[in-house]
TrEMBL record:
One GO CC term on file: 6-phosphofructokinase complex
Pathway involvement of the protein, from the record: Carbohydrate degradation; glycolysis; D-glyceraldehyde 3-phosphate and glycerone phosphate from D-glucose: step 3/4
Keyword Cell membrane: no
GO biological process: canonical glycolysis; fructose 1,6-bisphosphate metabolic process; fructose 6-phosphate metabolic process
Keyword Flavoprotein: no
Identification of the protein by name: 6-phosphofructokinase
Catalysed reactions, as listed in the record: beta-D-fructose 6-phosphate + ATP = beta-D-fructose 1,6-bisphosphate + ADP + H(+)
Domain Phosphofructokinase: 5-286
Enzyme Commission identifier(s): 2.7.1.11
Pfam families noted in UniProt: PFK (PF00365)
UniProtKB keywords: ATP-binding, Cytoplasm, Glycolysis, Kinase, Magnesium, Metal-binding, Nucleotide-binding, Transferase
Similarity remark: Belongs to the phosphofructokinase type A (PFKA) family.
Protein's organism: Colwellia hornerae
Localization, UniProt: Cytoplasm
């Protein structure tokens, strides 16, 4: 099928670098003389027919901006037959031949579902701070989120040192520990608690182990102590863990939830460049007749990955990272 007109949208949790990806898609499409339109607010824009033509002028001056000029959303209507039919109707009405979606695994599942209602070509670009997509070493936004987490914890470390305090810092990642392990290791956290090294059945053991470790560190006059914990891991989160340490071992901890700060801000160089390469590759993949694939990058080489493979969640946080933390770097191991 010859591609004559393409559409692009951003969906799911926004990620720094999404604007850089939009820009690259629009500039590459312009280069190949393909008119492009952007749909607003994720799949809502498709269902409601909310869109705007995108030209090189529309993407001028956005490469350094966090968030997404096309806005993003979680769109429950896409989980219904009616929603999918409306989305397909809009694409047909606008005479779109190909749709590029910048988002996470949920957004890719949306593309796979849409396929049954619309025969155009679909391409995914991995944009999520969580890095939880198979077939690519990195997703757009992950590097910036990790840097933001490190910068925040470096600051927390200063006050923790001054007051000899224990902090429990909760970071994002939905159900995967890429952010937790990378931020924890790079900020020299004394402990990292994530899905890869903790299960909820270990709760009581972990609590007494942590209490023992913290008391040992206090005896050894470690001035500060930082535990980095993944969101959705400990029942009740960092605040509850701090309360339990107080109740069971009389240890005072301060809980600090980094939250959405990790999703915003200007993308670091790595995300701008990854996003730009992937945006160009997405348009080229369409021209080459590809569909139902995600653009990924492995060992610095761009590649295409079937969308149904990208969403499998088989790839985990590197074992060497987990093992280095557990056996060498954690205060426990020293
Ligand atoms: N199985 C599915 N079928 C159709 N659409 C889906 C499906 N899963 C997710 N989506 C769409 O993709 C959107 C984004 O997914 P979500 O999981 O929230 O974020 P992300 O893409 O960042 O993982 C959802 O709000 C929904 O509109
Ligand atoms: O913005 P919401 O809907 O509260 O979602 C929060 C979730 O979004 C994220 O920031 C990004 O996740 P996705 O990219 O999968 O949407 C997660 O780290 C976090 O768990």
């Amino acid at each position: 099928m010859t591609i004559k007109k393409i559409a692009v949208l951003t969906s799911g949790g926004d990620a720094p670098g999404m604007n850089a990806a939009i820009r690259a898609v629009v500039l590459a499409a312009h280069h190949y003389a393909l008119p492009t339109i952007g749909f607003f607010s994720g799949y809502n824009g498709l269902i409601e027919g909310s869109s705007s033509a995108l030209t090189p002028a529309s993407v001028n001056g956005i490469i350094h901006r966090g968030g997404t000029i096309l806005k993003s959303a979680r769109c429950p209507a896409m989980l219904t037959e009616q929603g999918l039919e409306s989305a397909a109707t809009t694409l047909k009405k606008e005479q779109i031949d190909a749709l590029i979606v910048i988002g996470g695994d949920g957004s890719f599942n949306g593309l796979l579902a849409l396929n049954k209602y619309w025969s155009g070509a679909v391409i995914g670009i991995p944009g999520t701070i969580d890095n939880d997509i198979d077939g690519t070493d990195f997703t757009i936004g992950f590097s910036t989120a990790v840097n933001t987490g490190i910068e925040a914890i470096d600051k927390i470390r200063d006050t923790a040192e001054a007051f000899e305090r224990i902090f429990i810092v909760e970071v994002m990642g939905r159900r995967s520990g890429h952010i937790t392990f990378n931020v924890g290791i790079a900020s020299a956290a004394e402990q990292i608690l994530s899905f890869e090294n903790f299960s909820q059945t270990d709760e009581q053991d972990k609590l007494s182990h942590l209490a023992k470790e913290i008391k040992q560190a206090q005896q050894n006059r470690h001035a500060s102590y930082i535990i980095v914990i993944a969101e959705n891991l400990w029942p009740g989160g960092a605040t509850q863990l701090a309360m339990q340490l107080k109740q069971t071992a009389n240890i005072d901890c301060t809980a600090c939830i980094l939250g959405y700060i990790q999703r915003g801000g200007s993308p670091v160089a790595k995300d701008r460049i990854l996003a730009t390469k992937m945006g160009v590759a997405a348009v080229q993949a369409l021209i080459a007749g590809k569909s139902n694939v995600m653009i990924g990058e492995r060992n610095n080489q761009l590649l295409t990955v079937p969308l149904d493979v990208a969403v499998q969640h088989k790839e985990k946080v590197s074992e060497s990272l987990v093992s280095a933390q557990e056996n060498i770097l954690a205060l426990t191991a020293q």
